[in-house]
Design brief:
With about 220 residues, the chain is an alpha/beta fold. Helices cover about 40% and strands about 15% of the residues. It is globular, with a radius of gyration of 16 Å. The structure holds pyridoxal-5'-phosphate.
Length: about 220
């Protein structure tokens, strides 16, 4: 685990220096979905504090199981059903996949007792028919809705472009997300996974969501 964490940190630093950026401008979110608790504990022992889960119930269980480890921040990285909003509102420090006003309402309603929840709005940047995310043309009204809710703190945009054989093939999608962020006045960009995080950083990512490169292949479910 220490080797993998060190390699990922070094790759992030190298990508930042190619882009003339400071390494602490990029948050590493370790996506622990489907991994055993022992590996997540090992990653925490290597100094990682930000962990991502793609399903609300898994995030809930993980936050309970690792409740004895101080200072962990839980990131909800997958699409959310309205009826699971309570879990994200109660457990998460950050929600990366907000893509509908109804979900914004549901989460905001249940977050009122806490600090505002950091949110990224997910954009379907490659216009994939089956992918979550708001269409770029519909982004403005959704951002307005998020900004109008004090329980939500809009930090940026998120995208999950298609898997590609060559990381560089997703560069245009990452660049497009950056341009959308500029056009809409949001700076944060949650983009880049195991296969393409270095390209994403070169194109401006401020948070990368990395699973397999840290934890190894996910066990079959
Ligand atoms: C699984 C997942 C990741 C991490 O993917 P890896 O290929 O394991 O790095 C990132 N973002 C989301 C939304 C995911 O579901």
């Amino acid at each position: 685990m220490a080797t993998a964490v060190g390699e990922v940190r070094a790759a992030i630093t190298a990508a930042c220096s190619r882009a003339g950026r400071a390494p602490d401008d990029v948050l590493l979110v370790a996506v622990s979905k489907f991994q055993p608790d022992e590996l997540v504990r090992a990653a925490a022992a290597c100094g990682l504090r930000d962990f991502g889960e793609n399903r609300a119930q898994a995030l809930d269980a993980r936050a309970v199981d690792l409740g004895d480890v101080p200072g962990l921040r839980w990131h909800a990285v997958g699409p959310l059903q309205r009826n699971k909003a309570r879990i994200v509102a109660a457990r998460a420090a950050c929600f990366h996949a907000l893509d509908r006003v109804e979900v914004a309402d549901a989460v905001a309603e249940r977050r009122r007792e806490h600090d505002p929840l950091a949110v990224y709005v997910q954009v379907n940047i490659a216009a994939e028919p089956t992918k979550a995310g708001v269409a770029p043309a519909d982004l403005g009204p959704l951002l307005d809705a998020v900004r109008a809710r004090p329980a939500l703190d809009l930090v940026g945009l998120m995208a999950m472009p298609p898997p590609v054989r060559v990381a560089d093939d997703n560069r245009r999608h990452f660049a497009a997300l950056r341009e959308l962020g500029l056009a809409h006045g949001v700076r944060g960009l949650s983009m880049g996974t195991t296969d393409d995080f270095e390209v994403a950083i070169e194109e401006g990512a401020t948070a990368v969501r990395i699973g397999r490169r840290l934890f190894g292949d996910r066990p079959p479910v």
